[in-house]
Amino acid sequence: MTTLIVLAKECLPGRVKTRLHPPFSLEEAARLAAASLDDTLAIAQAVRCDRRLLWFDGRPPAAAGFEPRPQPAGGLDERIAAAFDACRGRTVLIGMDTPQADPAVLQAVLDDDSGAQAWFGPATDGGFWALGLDRPDGALVRGVPMSTAQTGAAQRARLVEAGLSVRDLPPLTDVDTVESAREVAAAAPGSAFASALAAVRDGAVA
Fold first, then answer.
1. In whole numbers, what is the pLDDT of the chain averaged over residues?
2. Is the pTM higher than 0.90?
3. Domain that holds residue 18
4. Which InterPro entries match (predicted)?
5. DSSP per residue over 97-165, as a string?
6. Residue 116 burial (C-beta neighbours within 10 Å; 0-12, 13-18, 19+)
7. Strands 67-70 and 51-57
8. Is residue 206 part of a domain?
9. Is a pLDDT exceeding 70 seen at residue 161?
């Protein structure tokens, strides 16, 4: 059994990508978040797996091939932990903020026969963009401080301390600031996110 989880939330103005405001309006920031989510879902749809889980905060979008499940209450660590606890077999979780992610990298994790037990995708801001567990267990995430510059290091250390063999994935940049948005768009020029960013910058999106 293999599972790919997309951790996401409803793209409402004022609830997503607020660090893009200013210079963008809250409505524009929400449009950029929605484009990033669209790209992420397309990436996940390109990966072969037994189950795709959309672990969602809010009203989930229609997404072919995904099982939508509501996120529980609690901090981010609790919500990620609950997602892993809802799965069995090799499971990979990604967020909605890296529309430049390569489906081949995720496929390689799901197909990995090297004996690795965990896969860690660091983010350049100190967090992580992907986390894979051969035997999903929320206890490996629960209690890790989230949304800090040390989150990734703390999460990877948790895996090592549990005695797991960890393989590192290529680092990626999350969309958080205008500068990171430009970097991500340049890395994925054909993405919906890149098109949305160009539209906003050109004033085509009100």
1. 96
2. yes
3. 2-201
4. Nucleotide-diphossugar_trans (IPR029044), Trfase_1_rSAM/seldom-assoc (IPR018641)
5. S-TT--HHHHHHHHH--S---EEEEEBTTSSEEEEEESS--GGGTTTPPPSSTTHHHHHHHHHHHTT--
6. middle
7. parallel
8. no
9. yes
CA distance 139 to 100: 29
Q: Which CATH number belongs to the domain containing residue 61 in this structure?
A: 3.90.550.10
pLDDT at residue 201, as a whole number: 79
Rounded distance between C-alpha atoms, residue 5 and residue 60, angstroms:
14
Name the token pair of 168: 């590192």
Query: Tens digits of per-residue pLDDT, 182-202?
Result: 999 999 999 999 999 999 976
Alpha carbon distance 106, 111 (integer Å): 9
For residue 160, what are the contacts with CB-CB under 8 A and spacing of at least 6?
166
Unique residue bearing structure tokens 């599972």? 3
Indicate the pairing of strand 118-122 with strand 128-133. antiparallel
